[in-house]
Design brief:
Elements (H helix, E strand, L loop, with lengths): L2 H9 L7 H11 L4 E7 L3 E5 L4 H9 L2 H4 L2 H6 L7 E2 L6 H6 L1 H7 L4 E10 L5 E9 L7 H23 L8 H8 L3 E4 L5 E4 L10 E3 L5 E3 L2 H16 L7 E5 L5 E9 L5 H4 L4 E7 L7 H8 L4 H11 L4 H8 L3 H15 L4 H10 L7
Antiparallel strand pairs: 1-2, 1-5, 3-4, 4-5, 6-7, 6-12, 8-9, 10-11, 11-12
Helix pairs in contact: 1-8, 13-15, 13-16, 14-15
Length: 360
């Protein structure tokens, strides 16, 4: 995995004017014409590669965005993955769809790979890369390459979305603009600055000796320490999203550790990482989407996680997925690692606490 690209993805979190260059690179690696980032909470914000900006200005300003079938299809998917047109429609259906027939194809476009992220904060985020009609649909290997980067894109874009794709003038303004509990950490895990929303978590998040961050959930504390260490030693491979459980073992929040990279230091000084806290559940969106999208589960791992939550055996999952039992065991092992669980029963309890079995 390209660690330099990952650094630049995280740089974009608080320097959103750099997103177009990262979107350009996503497009280049998949032989696409350009890339897009849409975010919406109360208002729509978006940015794009310069090569397709004019096209998508028309797409937004002329009302095509609201009529496009891609957005609801992407946002309805619980699997943490990029999707292509063929995942939703036949070629005949694409040919007669007004968005493709009257907007994309006359402009030389018509193939995309996109992913949606909807979280309980109310933020809806979409990434897509747009390929020319002449080049043809995205291949499976291109989707796989995008999926490797998806967890990093999701974490970084969540920060950008909270800030309205606007660059903050300093650390205090950035932390306040997030309007969620957040703080800055140094490499040793000591708190440099926290925003007022952190005070609401005083029972589960405390500041100890030397202003070190102390989490009431020991498993989360261990995962945070491992993630801080891995940011430098295993860039791109670290697990930077994990649950924070209450005294009953129920996951109530999710911690997102966002590395501070490159010119992001102009805003956050010499801070090492930003820790952002989001709720687990909300009336706005099922917690199933949150768990699968933000815990870096692959589609196959998400299927195993949901099966465990539903009481299925590993043998059942192997048959349903047409894979070997060893494959399912390996997928389960990775799910346990990513969710901070040590046993299958503990995983089932965690998934039940966030209603993974609920239909999206």
């Amino acid at each position: 995995m390209d660690s330099d690209l990952i650094d630049r993805i995280y740089e974009c979190s608080v320097v959103p004017e750099l997103w177009p260059s990262v979107l350009d690179e996503l497009a280049e690696m998949t032989e696409a014409r350009g890339g897009l980032l849409f975010s919406a909470r109360k208002v729509l914000c978006w940015t794009a590669s310069g090569s397709i900006r004019d096209v998508f200005e028309d797409y937004v300003n002329d009302g095509w965005f609201l009529r496009c079938p891609r957005r609801p299809c992407l946002m309805s998917q619980a699997q943490p993955s990029f999707f292509v047109e063929q995942d939703f429609w036949s070629e005949d259906q694409i040919e007669v769809d007004p968005i493709y027939r009257d907007f994309f194809r006359p402009r030389g476009l018509g193939w995309s790979a996109g992913t949606g992220l909807q979280v309980p904060t109310g933020d809806s985020i979409i990434f897509s890369v747009e390929r020319t009609l002449e080049r043809g649909p995205f291949e499976a290997e291109d989707v796989a390459a995008l999926n490797e980067l998806r967890p990093h894109l999701a974490r970084s874009a969540l920060v950008s979305a909270r800030l309205g794709l606007q660059r903050a003038q300093g650390a205090t303004e950035a932390l306040s603009g997030l309007r969620l509990p957040a703080l800055l950490l140094n490499e040793a895990g000591a708190v440099i600055e926290a925003n007022p929303w952190m005070e609401t978590l005083s029972e589960q998040v405390k500041f100890g000796a030397g202003n070190r961050l102390v989490l009431a959930d020991k498993a989360a504390q261990d995962q945070l320490a491992a993630a801080l260490k891995a940011i430098n030693t295993q860039p791109g491979a670290e697990r930077c999203t994990f649950p924070l459980r209450d005294e009953l073992g129920k996951a109530t929040m999710v911690l997102h550790l966002i590395p501070i990279r490159r010119s992001a230091h102009d805003i956050f000084g010499q801070s090492f990482a930003l820790l952002l806290v989001t709720p687990v559940s909300s009336e706005r969106t099922p917690a199933a989407n949150l768990l699968r999208s933000l815990f870096d589960l692959t589609p196959a791992e998400a299927r195993v996680a949901q099966g465990v939550a539903g009481g299925k055996t590993l043998e059942d999952l192997a048959v349903a997925g047409d894979v070997s039992i060893n494959t399912v065991r390996n997928q389960l092992r990775r799910v346990l690692e990513k969710t901070g669980c040590t046993r299958q029963a503990e995983l089932a309890a965690l998934l039940a606490s966030v209603a993974v079995g609920a239909a999206p």
